[in-house]
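pasting for the record
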Amino acid sequence: MSMNVSNSLSLRIYYNTYSKVVTGATRQSTPTGTLSFADTSALKNAIRKLQDYNFEESSDEQTQEKIRAFADTLNNTLQSAEKYAPNSSSVKHALSNIKNLNSQYASELKKIGITVDKDGSLSVYESAGKNYKKTKFDNFFDKDSEYLNALYKEAKKINRRVDVRI
C-alpha cells in the first residue's frame, strides 16, 4: 500500500482529538486498536463533512486538499484495519468490503481524479482539483452517494469492533 500522507488542515479536522496519529512516530507507536478506532472515526467524519461541502465555491487548491485528505484517511483506515484484522473476523470482513467498494466504484472515482490501486488504496491525481469540474465533486460527494454511505457503514462496523486496548 503506497502511503504518502500530508498533514493538512482537513486531516486534522477529520481526526479531531486523534490528530496526533495522522502521521509520524506517534502513528507507529499507537496501539493497533486505538489507531484503527481513530482512523475509522476520521473516515466517518471525512465522509459527512464532504457530503456537506460545497466544491463549486472552493478554489482548486481547496478541492485538491479535500480529496487528498479523504484518500489519506481512507488509506490510513485500510492500513490500520489490515493490522487489526487478525484479531477480529468482523474487522476483516469490513476491510474486505471497503476494498470491494473501492474496486466497484473505481470508474466513478477515476472520473474525479482518484485511482484505485491493486491493494484497494486510493491515489489522487496531482491536479485533480484543477482539471475536473467542481460539479463532478459535488455530485460524487452528495448525501445520497451509495459509495460514501456504504463506506460509512463499513467504517462504523470497524469502529464498533476494535478494542482500543490492543
